[in-house]
Amino acid sequence: MDYNKESLDKLVEEIIGTKDITLMEIPCVDLYMDQVTTFFNEKLGSLKRNDDDKILTKTMINNYTKGKVLMPAKNKKYTNEHMILLMLIYNLKQSISINDINIIFDSIIDMKAPKGTSLSLENLYNSFLDIKEVQNQNFVSDIDKDREFIKGRIKEMGKADGELIELILMVLLLINKANMQKRMAEKLIDNFLNKK
After folding, report:
1. Where are the domains positioned within the chain?
2. Model pTM above 0.70
C-alpha cells in the first residue's frame, strides 16, 4: 500500500470502524471461563495485530483474579460485572500497567460487597463508549490536521519528495501524543486514585 491521503484515510477508518462490545452483546447468563475467552476472542479478534496475538486467555483471567484486579468467579461462572471489568481491563492494559489498573479498580471493586462492585459498571461502561465515539470522530480530523502540519514543515525544509519523511514524522507525532496521554493518565492515577 502506498502512503497517501487515501491510504491514510483507509487506515483511520479501520481504526475508528472497530466496534466495541456493547452491554447488549453480553450474554444474559453467567459464563464459564472457556465461554468468556471464546466470547472475547470472537468479538475482539479483529483488533489483533498478528494472528498469534491473544485477546484474552485463561491465564490472563486467573492472573487478574490473583492480582485482585478482578473479583473471583462465582461458582466458576463469570457475571456481567466480570465481563464489563474484563472489557475495561482490555482497553486499559494496552497503555498502562496491571498495577495501575488495580489502583483504578480499587475505587470500583469492593470484594466484600454482595455484588462485588461499589458503583454501576453498566453506567460507567456506557459512558466510556459514548465518550470513545466522540474521540473517534475527533481522531479523524486530528489526523488530517497533523498530516497537513507535517506536509507544511516538509515544504519549509525544501524537500521535493518528502513521503518517507512525512511517514516517519507522522509515526513520531502519533507516538508522542500517545506518550503524553499515557503520562497524563499515570499522573491522574498517582495524584488522585492511589490511596497509598
Report:
1. 5-193
2. yes
